Amino acid sequence: MNRSMGSSWGGLWRIGILRGEPKHYAGKGMARSNSYQADPKFLTFHALRIKGFAKTETLVEMVALKVSEVDSHLQELATEELVMFREARSLWQLTPAGRTAHRPALDRDIAGLDLEPLKVHYHQFLEINDSFKHLCGDWQLLDGAPNDHSDAAYDQSVIKRLTALHASAAPVLQAMTLILPRLSNYGPRLESTCALVEGGANNMFTGVMCGSFHDVWMELHEDLILTQGIDRAKEGSF
């Protein structure tokens, strides 16, 4: 793990950028955003739109709010008939009305922000995303067969590549966070999951619905697509 990267994220937390606090930004390729403050209820609503369906604890992890806050948001959204709870699987999901209401809510969230500078960083992200897709395939398969992770040397070689990819993605994500502070929680989550993989938690590489590196990466990608109004199919970005 690149420890200097961790200190960079810590520095951003200390100055308030990763908490979504109002901040003046200046510099090449950075938008000025001196009044942005994400609405906590919108964060919960938006996180559920990103995931499609999720348990309360998953949304709590995504938005970095207290369980009581997220639960209150979900209850309010349910009263407004924007979300529904699937008791059989203990999962929340948006209703059709919720999916319709999400876009206007997202537009209000980004109103007044100059997202044009985000495009160059997004294209950098897509280049890294292509490498990540190949990396995930290499983690899941070995010589064309499912990787049973019995070859420690092979696994370590792939993990080293994940660490390097994470290091290359971190400054891109930091730059995007300066433009859109709502992206704040992705950096620390990716760093944490990368450390877990390095520590031997194999499921935290490409595991599904467990907060893995792949899960968080896909959430970030979906967030960027939704925020910019990109048609994923037309872009061919998966």
In words, what does this structure look like?
The chain folds into 2 domains: 3-33 and 115-235, no CATH class; 40-110, Arc Repressor Mutant, subunit A (Orthogonal Bundle), CATH 1.10.10.10. It contains 11 helices and 5 strands, in the order H-H-E-H-H-E-E-H-H-E-E-H-H-H-H-H. The chain is mainly alpha-helical and 238 residues long. The two termini are 26 Å apart. It has helices at 3-15, 40-51, 56-63, 67-79, 96-110, 118-140, 152-179, 186-198, 203-206, 213-228, 232-235, and strands at residues 53-54, 83-86, 91-94, 141-142, 145-146. The model is unreliable at 1-33 (pLDDT under 50). 63% of the residues lie in helices and 6% in strands. It has a 3-stranded antiparallel beta sheet. The protein has a two-stranded antiparallel ribbon with strand order 4-5. It is globular.
Task: Give the helices and strands, then pairings.
Layout: H1 3-15, H2 40-51, E1 53-54, H3 56-63, H4 67-79, E2 83-86, E3 91-94, H5 96-110, H6 118-140, E4 141-142, E5 145-146, H7 152-179, H8 186-198, H9 203-206, H10 213-228, H11 232-235
Antiparallel strand pairs: 1-3, 2-3, 4-5
Helix pairs in contact: 2-3, 2-4, 2-5, 2-10, 6-7, 7-8, 8-10
Which structural traits does this protein have?
238 residues, mainly alpha, Arc Repressor Mutant, subunit A, 2 domains, two-stranded antiparallel ribbon, 5 strands
